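Assemble and predict.
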Amino acid sequence: MTDTPLPHSSRDAHDIAHLQLVPRKHVGRKVFAAIVLFLVALLIRAFVVGQIEWPVVGQFLFAPVIIQGIWNTLLMTVAAMSLGIALGVLIAIMRISGNPVLEYIALVYVWIFRGAPALLQLLLWFNLALIFPTMGIPGLFEFNTVEVMTPFIAAMLGLGIQQGAYTSEVVRSGLLSVDAGQYEAARTIGMTGMQTLRRIVLPQAMRVMVPPVGNEVISMVKLTSLASVIQYSEILHNAQVIYYANTRVLELLMVASFWYLAIVTVLSLIQSRIERYYARGTRGRTTI
Amino acid sequence: MTSEILVKAVDVCKRFGTFKALHEVGLEVRKGEVSCIIGPSGSGKSTLLRCINLLERIDSGAIWANGELIGYRRDGNKLYELSDVEIARQRRSIGMVFQRFNLFPHKTALENVIEGPVQVLGESAKAAREHAMELLKRVGLADKAGNYPAELSGGQQQRVAIARAMGMRPSLILFDEPTSALDPELVAEVLDVMNDLAASGMTMIVVTHEMGFARNVSNTVAFMDGGRLIEHGPSARVLTQPDNPRTADFLKAVQR
């Protein structure tokens, strides 16, 4: 009997109103958690008894070559993502500038650099010397493409430029999410278009942009592993160098996995802090 | 009233696609005058207001404010469109208060007020802050200076918006239905601030449905209908003995 009808006397109603409230038990959640924990335990056991020598993993976890790889991975993530965000903001502003020339340039940029696989773009930049042996402005300066297009530069350009195409769409949706009244209010206090973007619109768009951009940073950490193909010595490349020598393939892949996961974990924590900063002045989060 | 003319519109036309929003509208507002624009929805009141500070571009006609032709520069017998920067400069001295407040949600009440003075007028942060606190005190919100707009009621937000407009030390403030988005019990606090502003000699053009404000505070009332300015005169006369039968019909409808 779950139905409690309206009592006839106000005294009864008063009694009911003062009964103790018992929260829902959520039995289902507890059962589900137990099942998940059991499955995780099985998985861990499988890896422990499997054909992998954990002491070797431990031995290489902090090897200098691996640590060097971590730094290079972080460096490439920062370099490529900075280039990507700078290009993304620029392209997004061009898209909404109202200037048809800029709009078409932006459209073609996104079309081309979103259209080709990242790995292919890395290879193209790295081998640019095959098309243009020398680059420069005639009479001013000139250099050999091979010397400039190091693995670092090639990877940064390849990853950063294709990232710019994706990030521009994130930035554009952020700009569109800001109410037209904000642009108007900024205009009425005498702001120019650029001031309006910088002071009023972009800071508000950030709130919408941070989660997807954070997502892209995390995805960039892993995309940098593509640079191993063009001899950039990041985590995966250095792990491979070691296992070509000692044939401990799986152990070193475990080392690499550990570090990627560690970096991504730290970045996720930073992301949630940034989200909280840009959510100031708005109402809190929601659950369904 | 014999003071100088601050706003003058001549034969202003504005089209949205095939819809004629303004049809040869003329208007004169003198310095220190409070002018209400009344009329049914879609009559072009807000459009006229938005043309004065160039949120909308006019198709023909001319508008002067503060002695300058708005949006164009005359050279010989041609009018050349001004640049983004020049238009921004013209807007500095024309404040605007919106129906939906449009406060900057990522800035506190105080930051909303000092944004223009610091970023646009180049005032020092300290001077702008002092002036802003004075203004917030004047609209009765000194204690809310550190609050974000989402933490304020509609009436409080609109009062901050008025303080923001005044922060630019404008010679004219445009009000676009400033009380229409407010809960009924919050209308009075905003009208009080506007009364106070009118008493201080601020030139105001107010698009409104508040007949009490039009009657008691404004000097002149303009009635618009179908994109035309039907009549414009001293508020007492227009509201009690209008020349035009359409004005009379409208007043009868709103003053049931």
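Residues 121 and 147 of chain B are 24 Å apart (CA to CA).
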